[in-house]
Amino acid sequence: MSKSKRSLFRRINAWLHLWLGLASGIVVFVVCLCACLWVFRYEVWYFTETYQRIEPQNQPFLSPSVLLKKAQAFAQKAEGKSVTLTGITYGGPNKSAFVNYKPTEDKFYALYLNPYTGEIIHRKTGPSTAETFFIFARSGHRFFFLPPKIGSPLVGSACIIFVILMITGLIWWYPKKWTKSTREKSFAIKWNANWKRVNLDLHNVLGFYSLLVCMALTISGIVYSFSWFDKGYHWLLTGNAQDTHHHTRSHEHPLSDTTITAAAYSKPEDIIWQKIRRELPGDLGRLSLSFPEEARDPFEVTINPEDGTIYKTVTRFFDRNTLNELPSDESRRYEELTTGEQIYRLNFDIHVGQILGLPTKILAFFVSLIGASLPVTGFIVWWYRGKKSDKRPKVSVQQTSGSVL
């Protein structure tokens, strides 16, 4: 089809797709490539950091006070001075517990313990090699390896453009007439064709098949770049225009009653632990207890019933002296939320592909990889759009049904 025979709408659509794609291509490539590397971070950490794993035993975990006492003694000996313990985290039956502490005001270390015996397994003073790699990958994914104040809006803007590219690409991909020939070009890769045609098919066909998942991964990611988008997304789902937890959670914590200066209980961590375990018997994905640092700070307990996803995570607060539970929106269980609030809380798990466990992680990995390939295959299509190969006919976008991305 010649340019003159294409409608004005399709010409504008093609122009937008081309120039927006060229403008955002390098950022989209880096963001998507780093995303597919980041998908399996927990699995890599678990298998490379052997101190995270223990042999399950048919007995209950030791109470927090016992593990904290052992951790304090070990840390004091290692540091040569008394240290401040900031919290303790329990995992599942086959995972070690760990106690966080501050050797100095600006450093955080962790001691990994066997929760059944209290044995110190590992003293962690910095990120492991695997963590360092994934921190690097996340920097590319979230900030394009730039300072966050510059990189975050750059990545967010590229993602908004990428959404527009997916829409314009679908319009370009859609044939004017459905025939046997256009169906073959739209839904199948012709592997025995010349390399330009294969490249074009990779762009069109893979772009089409990954469209819906890629759209979900991209839109859910824009939430973390722009507060206005986050608030608008929250309002659209819930009808509530209040500030969302992504940006204001730290300012919404309830506070302890500072008029009470004497603790009513000894070993408060054990009392809170026992209360939680009575309410939630059986295996838990993860339970973290953070200790108050200032006079008004409460005890903070983060409970994740299912390790691997976070949408069911709740955070509960207890007065540091009376241990009375303090009301907070963060303590609402997933089942207590409205449908819109539930969808909003699912956002992170959708974005990183962990919403249904390993199957959706694999899906997110391949869709992110396809997303990274689209700027490359699209650039090749544009670069060679008017160039002829030796003894081969010219391959152009007009010879196909279109382009998805």
TrEMBL record:
Q: Which UniProt keywords apply?
A: Membrane, Transmembrane, Transmembrane helix
User: What InterPro entries does the database record attribute to this sequence?
Assistant: PepSY-ass_TM (IPR005625)
Q: Membrane-spanning regions, if any?
A: 12-40, 154-174, 206-229, 362-384
Check the UniProt entry and state the signal peptide residues, or none: none
* Pfam families documented for this protein: PepSY_TM
Q: What is this protein called?
A: Uncharacterized iron-regulated membrane protein
